Every structure is written in structure tokens, then in C-alpha cells.
Amino acid sequence: MKNIVLIGFMGTGKSSVGKILSKKLGFKFIDVDKVIEKTTGMKISEIFSRFGEPRFRDIESEVINLITQKNRQVIATGGGVVLREENMKKLKENGVIFCLKASENVIFERLKHCKDRPLLQVENPEKRIKELLEKRKHLYEKADFCIDTEGLTPEQVTEKIIERLTDGKT
Ligand code: S3P
Question: CA torsion 146→78→107→134, rounded to 10°?
Fold first, then answer.
């Protein structure tokens, strides 16, 4: 059995769903951002502020390279993992990729008080979310399956993923 990879914009529930899904499948749960924080000893926002986004992306790719060497894991990625084609190639090699989707409004409501998303620490985060979503939309669509999470609990999203995995088409 391959890895199950969750991609999608910030605030779409990748980590919450990933934890539940990994328990149900008996797979190991990997949260890429947490691995980055553990290996660097720094918070994501600190990496961004001290070294900039390009360095963060390099570390993110290094972590993707490492973790994709193993199987039977549920991998929750950071929202920007799709920006580098090499990341997606690695993840696809031994993984089924699910994209979690939510509307701009839901994402904004979920994240408006969060201080730990460096890309959204701007004057108008709502506008930034819109711009980033527009820029990345076509990249998220490269997933094997897209799941609309609107109005669903993380448990219900997990069930949808399991249905997809067991309907024989994966
Ligand atoms: C990012 C998403 C974040 C984190 C970093 C950059 C992005 O992860 O990797 O702040 O570029 O969308 P989450 O999607 O888990 O919030």
C-alpha cells in the first residue's frame, strides 16, 4: 500500500483529517511542517522571517525527498508544496494524492486570527488568500482526487477519502 498524501490550501483541514485517517488505516502520520520544525528547531514563521521563503521551500523539498522513501504513511503537506514540480513528482511516485478544497470565505474565517501563517501576515489577508488561491488553483488540480470539504467535519472528509480508496479506482 502506497502513501496517502493530502494537499490543499492553508486551512483546508489537512492535518486534522490526516490524523484521523492515519488512525483508521493504521498508517503512520507525517505532518511535513512539523517535521520541518523538528529538524530545524525553528517555527515555520521563524524560518520565513530569518531566511526567507526560498530557503523554506528548499527545506520543504529536502523533507519531501526523505519522507517519500517510505510507504504506509498519511502525509499532510504544507499548502505551498505544489509550487515545486519535483515535490509533486516525488509524492506521486509512491502515493495517492488527495486535494482538500474549501472556499475563500471559509479559509479566511478559519485563519483570520492565526499568527502562524507567515504568508498571511499582511494588511489584507483576505485579498492575499484570493491571490494565492488563484495562482495555485491549477496546481492543486494535479491531485488524483479532489474533495470538497465545505460543510463537512474532518471525520466526514476522512470517510470520503476512505470511500475513494476502497471503490477500486485507486
Ligand atoms: C504555506 C502553508 C503552511 C506552511 C507555510 C507555507 C503555503 O502550511 O507550510 O506557512 O505556502 O501555503 P499549512 O497549509 O499547513 O498551513
Answer: -70
DSSP β-bridge partners for residue 90 = none
Distance between Cα 163 and ligand 1 center (Å): 27
pTM of the model: 0.97
Q: pLDDT tens digit string along 57-86?
A: 999 999 999 999 999 999 999 999 999 999
Atom 8 in ligand 1: residue holding the nearest Cα: 78
For the CA of 10, the closest atom of ligand 1 is: 14
Q: What is the 8-class DSSP label of residue 94? A: T
Ligand 1 site, CB within 6 A = 10, 14, 33, 44, 78-80, 117-119
* CA atoms within 13 Å, Cβ hemisphere of 24: 19
